[in-house]
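pls design
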């Protein structure tokens, strides 16, 4: 209950509790009549905590036994989780492992990364300052270069109260309504972004038929208009850390194809450009606690083929 109360204070709309090798928190919340209140509790989540890595399983219909998974057969277990309609995420893949934190480093051999829904690129408090998060971002970027369809995410590892000097990253999910099915669909598609505070709206519109697309959508090659609208930083989360967006970056196949200066006076940006086969995504960089060129928003890709 303490975790849920803190989530309410932070202003979270949705909370997924992926505890280590247990789902007992959901039984406790049900007994305390938390269902139906904010934050919305996204059930069926667990963090596989093994000697070979931590794997996030979200929204599965059943709990799959993690205890006999081996480093070289993780793909078969991923398939079983998919059959239970679960989402798969790799948690903090480059965090220090044994003897500091047994199993925290990802040592499973994944042969088919397309079955993995997301990689946690921002983990823990003040994630922008952690080297292991930079390494996770590079892994995700390299997989995109290979043509993989995989999203990035953030997670708090919320084991204790946050210090005043620490900030956190947040996932913003595109939803028509807050429901388990909608949340699962958006995460599976990749219709969400990771932020250190600033909010945004991202849409891509085809010149050929004026159809709008959301993050994670499949596009045909051609001319598109990219609409990005920047919002405010949530004061409940990271509003006191001197967050200032300065650049909007458009990346295609992990190369920056256009960089636009961001000003406080102009919050809406429209760019027309040709999209070729591969992936296309948006990032917003700026200053954070007076540190320049920090990735403030990392949006998940659109896929062009």
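designed seq:
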């Amino acid at each position: 209950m303490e975790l849920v109360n803190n989530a309410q204070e932070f202003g979270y709309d949705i909370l997924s509790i992926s505890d280590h090798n247990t789902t007992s928190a959901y039984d406790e919340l049900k007994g305390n009549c938390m269902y139906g209140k904010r934050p919305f509790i996204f059930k069926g989540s667990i963090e596989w905590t093994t000697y070979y890595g931590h794997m996030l399983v979200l929204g599965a219909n059943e709990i799959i036994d993690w205890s006999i998974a081996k480093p070289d057969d993780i793909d078969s277990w991923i398939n079983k989780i998919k059959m239970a309609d679960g989402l798969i995420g790799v948690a903090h893949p480059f965090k220090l492992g044994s003897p500091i934190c047994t199993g925290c480093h990802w040592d499973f051999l994944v042969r088919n990364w397309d079955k993995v829904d997301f990689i946690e690129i921002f983990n823990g408090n003040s994630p922008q300052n952690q080297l292991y998060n930079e390494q996770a971002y590079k892994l995700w970027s390299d997989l995109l270069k290979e043509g993989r369809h995989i999203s990035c995410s953030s997670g708090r590892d919320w084991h204790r109260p946050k210090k005043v000097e620490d900030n956190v990253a947040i996932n913003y999910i595109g939803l028509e309504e807050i429901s388990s099915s909608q949340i699962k669909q958006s995460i599976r598609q990749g219709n969400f972004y990771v932020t250190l505070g600033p909010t945004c709206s991202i849409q891509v519109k085809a010149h050929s038929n004026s159809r709008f697309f959301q993050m994670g959508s499949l596009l045909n090659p051609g001319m598109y208009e990219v609409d990005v609208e920047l919002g405010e930083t949530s004061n409940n989360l990271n509003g006191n850390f001197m967050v200032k967006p300065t650049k909007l970056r458009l990346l295609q196949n992990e190369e920056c194809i256009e960089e636009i200066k961001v000003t406080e006076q102009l919050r809406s940006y429209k760019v027309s450009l040709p999209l070729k086969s591969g992936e296309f995504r948006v990032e917003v960089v700026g200053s954070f606690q007076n540190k320049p060129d920090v990735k403030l928003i990392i949006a998940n890709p659109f896929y062009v083929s």
